[in-house]
Amino acid sequence: MIENALWLDIEASGLANDSYPIEVGWCDFSGKTGHVLIAPCPDWTHWDDNAEHLHGISRSTLNTEGHSVTEAAQIVALAVADKVVFSDSPLFDARWLYKLFFAAGWSDVPCHLEDADDLLLNIVKNGRLGMIDKIEIEITAQKIAPITHRAADDAMFWATLTRLALERQRV
After folding, report:
1. Which CATH number does 1-171 carry?
2. CA 97 to CA 134: how far, in whole Å?
3. pLDDT tens digits along 68-84
4. pTM for this predicted structure
């Protein structure tokens, strides 16, 4: 299962109900990443300046470099095909995936999001690792693949964190 895993992260225009996805990024178990910027639909108008400050993606960047929702949905669908997909925030990310795919005319989302933290905690527990091990692994992962609040980078952090935990197991 883990070799077929994909970690997915989404950056959004904000956290409000009318926010929308602006970037989807992913990383597989080997560390290969990908991402897509999404040009907002005309009726996607919510914008939180604090969110922009966090992820550093401007509306003008989305309008000039972003893919249409149809193209973005196709790119994401190809990335998640036949994968077990993990997210550090499955409820938020699922909401934004639905928004993307429904805007693109899809009747459903092509993946179910598993909780990346649940996976990590199971590895820690089953590998007989303690909380100090978990903290050391998180510090090392942050050095290797720092969280930048860009989708592919953040997905890479979770893939790296999981890989390090698996390598450290005491089974």
Report:
1. 3.30.420.10
2. 30
3. 999 999 999 999 999 99
4. 0.94
